[in-house]
Amino acid sequence: MKRLLAYVLISLSLLSCSGKVKEYGLEIVNIYPHDPEAYTQGLFFHDGVMYESTGQWGESSIRKVDPETGEVLQRMNFSQKFFGEGSVVLDGELYVLTWMDKVAFLCDPETFEYHGTVRYPREGWGLTTDGKELIASDGTPFVYFLDGTMKMTRRIKVTLDGHPVRNLNELEWIGGKIWANVYLTDTILIINPKDGKVEGRIDCRGLLEKALKAFPSPREPDVLNGIAVSPDGRIFLTGKYWPALFEVRLKK
Question: What's the rounded Cα separation, in Å, for the pair 62 and 87?
Answer without folding.
Answer: 8
